[in-house]
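User: Could you check the structure of this?
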Amino acid sequence: MGWFTGFVLYVLIWWTVLFAVLPFGTRPVEEADPRSGWRGAPAQAHIGRKVVATTLVSLLVWGVCVAVIESPWASFRSGWLALPPH
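Assistant: Sure, the predicted structure tokens are below.
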């Protein structure tokens, strides 16, 4: 895998993990809007923590993905996943 492919894979994993991490630890504001009843955005989003957590989890998932992609264990060229010869 080249560096560009690895970078694109990391960005895709990062965005996916970000949307998985965003809901953790969010609490709605105590008082709802008197007119609409809508509570809106969380009182404290803790975006910095979520970005750091997303980055760390993404590095772990990316490392596992790269290891599986580079290993001969999951290769379509040889091994039990390979297509039969013509």
